Amino acid sequence: MGILSPGPLWLVLPLLVALPRTSLALWLLDTPEPVCSQPGLNCTVENSTCLAESWFSPPNMTPSFPKDVNIRLGFEHSRNGNLFPVVHIEWKVWTDGSILFLRGAELSVLQMSTNEQLCVEFKFLNQLQHQVRPDLSRWHFAFDNFVVEPGQEYEITVQHLPKPKPNRDPNHESLPFRVPDCRDPRMKVTTPCMSSGSLWEPDILVERLKNNSLVVSFNLWNESTFYKILVNGFPNTETNSCYEEVQYINQSREEDFHHRTNVTFLLQNVNACCQYSVQTLLK
Length: 283
Ligand SMILES: *[C@@H]1O[C@H](CO)[C@@H](O)[C@H](O)[C@H]1NC(C)=O
Ligand SMILES: *[C@@H]1O[C@H](CO)[C@@H](O)[C@H](O)[C@H]1NC(C)=O
Ligand SMILES: *[C@@H]1O[C@H](CO)[C@@H](O)[C@H](O)[C@H]1NC(C)=O
Ligand SMILES: *[C@@H]1O[C@H](CO)[C@@H](O)[C@H](O)[C@H]1NC(C)=O
Ligand SMILES: *[C@@H]1O[C@H](CO)[C@@H](O)[C@H](O)[C@H]1NC(C)=O
Ligand SMILES: *[C@@H]1O[C@H](CO)[C@@H](O)[C@H](O)[C@H]1NC(C)=O
Description:
binds 2-acetamido-2-deoxy-beta-D-glucopyranose, five-stranded antiparallel β-sheet, elongated, Immunoglobulin-like, five-stranded mixed β-sheet, 2 domains, mainly beta
């Protein structure tokens, strides 16, 4: 948008950036209730320290690795109605005799940026008696309760239990998983993206007053938050900055939500410095 006012031509480029909030730790959503019991199998889903017992005393006979591990982005509501991105994990079990030694599975999520890991254990309460389920389909399992974060990368592992001795063939499957960031239309409406301002439309307007003030006006967001308003000035021909000023607003009053606010900058060196960019950032 350009503004014509006394003096040279003013070109103003409004930009907006919503910064992601600081990352939360990995966590488990408590809804829907995870279920692994099915006809022919009693099973519980338990919290795990990521150190299955078989790490310490590996048995002689261990089950095969998981078959057809499938991972995709899912969305689940918490009990209080918030919507979270989750990783949907599902896998099948090979129809072979090693099923007699399958005692469960450890599912783990490793967040690459922090090296943080979270695990759950599917614990079988009885031994599987047949290579297929009573309805003759393969044994299969799914889990939807690991909450993931916008833009983060993970490694997802399904480890059949018990684990084998170190020099035997491994019986796990690991897959990389990248979560889209808040620009993705499905992610945009999730609670973590909304609270970082994914639906925020600041609608920036800039006006230069006769006394060389620059008034920046924009819409506030409806979460109590910090705003950073950054104005950069450039001479006509060069890319070097000739003006840079930042102002912060701490807006936490609910009656201001969705209202417009004005921030005034006093410009200097206005004859040489004639192009401006304005950014509003949400923290
Ligand atoms: C699962 O547990 C229930 C109740 O304890 C029991 O009646 C049932 O026989 C068990 N099923 C299997 C497959 O062990
Ligand atoms: C497992 O962990 C979740 C949170 O991560 C917690 O809410 C739940 O109470 C824990 N369950 C047990 C049996 O410790
Ligand atoms: C510039 O003008 C505006 C409106 O007329 C006034 O609010 C502001 O205080 C003035 N700024 C300076 C530095 O005089
Ligand atoms: C903020 O506004 C958006 C869009 O108007 C709305 O969907 C959201 O629920 C509001 N959030 C809060 C905390 O009021
Ligand atoms: C922002 O303002 C609120 C209320 O005025 C205050 O409680 C809060 O501590 C302020 N935040 C910071 C980081 O200064
Ligand atoms: C913000 O500035 C605009 C244009 O200068 C003015 O019309 C409006 O009344 C101002 N709003 C507030 C809240 O100061």
